[in-house]
Design a protein that fits this description.
Distance between the termini: 27 Å
Mean pLDDT: 83
Largest sheet: 5 strands, mixed
Radius of gyration: 13 Å
Number of strands: 5
Order of helices and strands: EHEHEHEEH
Strand content: 25-35%
Amino acid sequence: MTKLLEITDWGLIEELRKNPEPLIVTVVDRLHGRHARAARRMAELAAFYDEASFRLIDAAEHPSMRRVLSLRRLPSVIVFTGGRELRRWQGRVEKRWVASALNAYLDRS
């Protein structure tokens, strides 16, 4: 079972409000090309981080999320914790960048 779950715009807002653990949100525009690669990379990371929740939003299905999250480029990955944004990448997203931010927050070596 994958830990990278699709989420709707209202579901994300509610989850941000009440989730104290790191929440990694990947926003893509249809799952093809580099957008599919970004989603795959986050799914791979999800297997290694039980302390974090990973969510996927397809901006083609939920266009309001681009405005809600102030996104200029896709794919985008945003790390939230305690309802606040910790880090953001737009356009090119490397798995090691997200892993590094999570490790620093979770105090992993």
